[in-house]
Amino acid sequence: MRRAFFSLLYWISKPRWDTGIPAPELVRAISNRPAGRALDLGCGTGTNVRYLVEHGWQATGLDFVPAAIAQARRRLGPLPADLRVADVTRLGELDFPGQFDLALDMGCFHSLTADGQRRYARGLEHWMKPGGIYLLYAWQPGPDGKGGGLAREAVEAAFSHGFRLAGYEQGQGRPSAWYYFDRIS
To answer: 20 to 30 A Cα–Cα from 59, which one of 14, 133, 142, 145?
Structure first.
């Protein structure tokens, strides 16, 4: 059902989250970091994948919506990137040519079921290099506890095995936050 909903959004209009501008948090995170291998989970139309490739990264983008990946391929044109229609809750089943130095998720993790979140976190742990960084943007519940999203404690607990929280900042507008994790061995 979720796949059908998101597929419809990509077919009928430009999703409101598709700004065409790379995330400033990503731009900051890679500004003083040597290029390596990057994974964008829920990459949508590939804005951040394109930015990474343009800055020397070998980038892989995953999205479970075929229309999003098709748009990402058009956005990247001849730029080299590995774009795949894939389920982020099945990372452990995917075949990548090595581990990643950077992973990015802008709004995918918080939309998964609890079981999906557990499988995602274990798969990400497997595919991240020790010393790698993981940037996660997730919605949070509102001040009244309503509105969906994940409490900070729930996000930290989901990545407590294999990752260390290195930074946290509140998002702007809707209750949300950016989490910066280091992959530990």
So the answer is: 14
CA distance 47 to 132: 21
pLDDT at position 112 is 94
List Cβ neighbours of 40 (8 Å cut-off, separation of 6 or more): 46, 48, 49, 52, 59, 60, 61, 62, 103, 104, 105
Calculated CA dihedral for residues 139, 75, 129, 88, nearest 10 degrees: 50
How is residue 171 written in tokens? 């998002």
- Report pLDDT digits (tens) over 138-178: 999 988 777 788 999 999 999 999 999 999 999 888 899 99
Q: Where are the domains of the chain?
A: 2-6+37-183
Q: Considering the entire predicted model, what is its pTM?
A: 0.89
Q: What SS3 class is residue 48?
A: helix
pLDDT per residue as tens digits for the range 2-33: 555 555 555 566 656 667 789 999 999 999 99
**Token digits for 180?**
């910066």
Angle among Cα 6, 176, 124 to the nearest 5 degrees reads 65
d(CA 75, CA 46): 7
CB 21 within 8 A of CB 50: no
Q: Which CATH architecture has domain 2-6+37-183?
A: 3-Layer(aba) Sandwich (3.40)
**How many beta carbons lie within 10 A of that of residue 19, not counting itself?**
10
